[in-house]
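Q: Can someone sanity-check these two? First one:
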Amino acid sequence: MKYALRGITAEELSYSINRVKMDPNTKFEIKPQFSRTIRTVKENDKLHFVTLEVKVQSTEDSPKPFNLTARLVGIFEAEDVNTDEDRQILAISMTEIVYPYLRSAVSALTANAFVNPLILPVIPAGTMFPEDREATSFNAPDALN
């Protein structure tokens, strides 16, 4: 299997401040929620898209100082993706390539809002999503381990 990144675009980058009244020493627990969607173009089975999204949303039960959404789409061209194992390896690889851009976008977005930048953690390939953790039990390439 061969694949190459053809482009990355930001579908949505949004930040809004929440006027939350808390004691000065209160610490907020920021728990970003991640999601991923993978699509293939029916007319061109070599073209693959991965959408990575991270959200921080304030709720009554869990107030946050801000709401944030960052959604990036990576466009890839891949050949010889024939088996479920190939598709899983491609999904993990695409995620691994696009995720650092998502981290950077979130850090820049929060820094440009003049708040302490939110720096997302470095997450090893194959551990970000539950379906990837299960897939790494097969003979994945060394790059995924």
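And here is the second, same format, sequence then tokens:
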Amino acid sequence: MATATKNTKKVRLQPLNERVVVERAASEDVTAGGIVLPDSAKDKPARGTVLAVGPGRMLDDGTRSELQVKVGDSVLFSSYAGEQFEVDDQELLLMREDDILAVLE
């Protein structure tokens, strides 16, 4: 479960169903050739770390399917995946597990 504190107040995020909370990795400030990139030229990385996962999708028989990702996994996702939001100046993404393309090992 993702947590963030604000003015000694904790915000707890528990995604529902097959949704996942991901913290996007920081973008690179310098290219491989040593060129410093301004903020306007930086691409948002399509990778991040899973902070919280939901209980899984409800199946027709009343059970829940287990998610393939878990908290702490480094993942790749499509660049326009999920909804972006901020908690305590921390930029997070809420997306469906289907938006995740791969787990980095």
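A (reply): Looked at the second one. The longest strand covers residues 47-53. The radius of gyration is 16 Å.
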